[in-house]
Amino acid sequence: MNTSEMSIPNAGLSVQKGFAESVKSILEAKYDHTPRAFVHTYGCQGNVSDSERIKGMLHEMGYVFTDSPEDADLVLFNTCAVREHAEDRVFGNVGALKNIKENRRDMIIALCGCMMQQPRISDKIKRSYPYVNLVFGTFAFPRLPEMLYRVLQGKRVFEVAEEKGKIVEGLPTYRDRAFKSWLPIMYGCDNFCSYCIVPYVRGRERSRRPEDILAEAKQLIADGAKDITLLGQNVNSYGKGLDIDINFAKLLKMINDLPGNFVLRFMTSHPKDCSKELLDTMAECEKVERHLHLPFQSGNNRVLREMNRRYTAQEYIALTDYAKSVMPDIAITSDVIVGFPGETYEEFQDTLRLIERVQFTSLYTFIYSRREGTVAAKMPDEVTHREKAEWMRELLDLQESIAAVRTAGYVGETKKVLVEEWDGKGILVGRTNDNITIQFPGDESLIGTFQNVKVTEALSWIVKGELQGE
Ligand code: SAM
Ligand code: SF4
User: Fold this and answer.
1) Does the C-beta of 336 come closer than 6 Å to ligand 2?
2) Separation CA 455–CA 51 (nearest Å)
3) Calpha distance 31→19 (Å, rounded)
4) What is the pLDDT of residues 167-198, one digit of tens each?
5) What pLDDT digit, counting tens, does each position of 332-352 carry?
């Protein structure tokens, strides 16, 4: 590989393929075994999807995957920056690698993803973690072969510059489970919710072309996908900036109409852009699951304004009422933040009222975490973490009682279930079409198939059942 190619920024796929071949040959000469990589992903499904591309490239370079960092020649963490807790865990886990590397000097340690896209973090890694070989941000990962090549030449590589507006198609993908697939339809976010770091580390919103998405969907179905989730930070604004007449509802219908025995989900929807057209399309499409993940974040209008969410609690409720009117069996799930700066206990009560009113199937709950560089980080925040944790307990108790009533109503019903896991002792775990986890006795060979399961017992978050067959 000639060295002038190494300095080409955003080198194209064919150049990367060349680097991948060189890396493969270097690894073959370096090790007396097949090189092993340990890849750990923190955070959301967007990161899981990026890791599938990263693993695809590593696989192309000759790596196989191991579950144990001690056993790995390459350890890679794909990191999350959404909350401080996630960042602390990464620092803890990187710290723990130091001891392993002391006995394994040629181990390569790589860190990538949202956390690394922040200069204060990558600078800290550069200064304080000299045993980390490679750091790259969210925009650089398609150039992994080139970066790894440079590491194998003995360099320490840091690639965290922003590369605006680029979508790289055609990367190889490695999926652990063929039957359950993530399919990114867009990247980045333009919403700038005042608490959120995502727009800063993932860049501006950009949509993939529908023909590229459809080609990937067809390939997934051919490879055995049974459950496809379309991914984006705000899927409802899909298509913005493309030079063709397309929106998310149209894309959903196009994928729904592909032949095959699969179900379709999507996340995340932003209430300000979730249209009646989309809800009507969902209702019409037989492969789209009756599940809407629609984060509300707060039930108080002043807090929603400060969060820059651009809808009111009343508009949110009207939207969910409409969804229930066109799909009476719909499961609505959501994200909620407790203890946004300046939020009072009285305002938090509005969040509880909204939860009571909408009757969510389940909630992802977060205590507000201050993110440097966001608008909310400058707002005074006087409520203690301890008080916020007490508010959270109240919220969780309410949601648990709502979920318990809902799941109790399932007893005696037969549900279509995609079987996802086996516990090794005869119990299968699956998900119903409205996103409830169900456990039932059965055989490992059923993983990845659809089965009818009769619900026999309801716990608050999950249900138990008996297999009825296909
Ligand atoms: N794009 C999605 C949306 O608009 O709802 C969500 C993406 S974000 C990665 C997932 C969730 O993390 C958000 O819905 C929010 O509830 C939570 N979150 C984001 N920033 C947060 C922060 N600073 N503190 C606590 N939770 C946060
Ligand atoms: Fe963050 Fe808001 Fe964008 Fe979701 S929509 S990723 S919460 S800025």
Assistant:
1) no
2) 35
3) 18
4) 899 999 999 999 999 999 999 999 999 999 99
5) 999 999 999 999 999 999 999
Q: Is the CB of 231 under 6 A from ligand 2?
A: no
Q: For residue 262, how many other CB atoms are within 10 A of its CB?
A: 21
The residues with which 390 forms a beta bridge, in sequence order, are: none
Testing ligand 1's pocket by substitution, the residue of 196, 311, 383 carrying the most ligand atoms inside 8 A of its CB is: 196
**Contact indicator for 249, 214 with CB cutoff of 8 Å:** no
Residue 45 CA to ligand 2 center (angstroms) comes to: 14
> Is residue 234 lining ligand 2, measured as CB closer than 6 Å?
yes
Q: From the CA of 44, which ligand is nearest?
A: 1
Cβ(304) – ligand 2 distance below 6 Å: no
pTM: 0.94
Residue 246 contacts residue 210 (beta carbons within 8 Å): yes
d(CA 94, CA 107): 13
| pLDDT class of 10 with cuts at 50, 70, 90 | very low
Write down the pLDDT at residue 434.
79
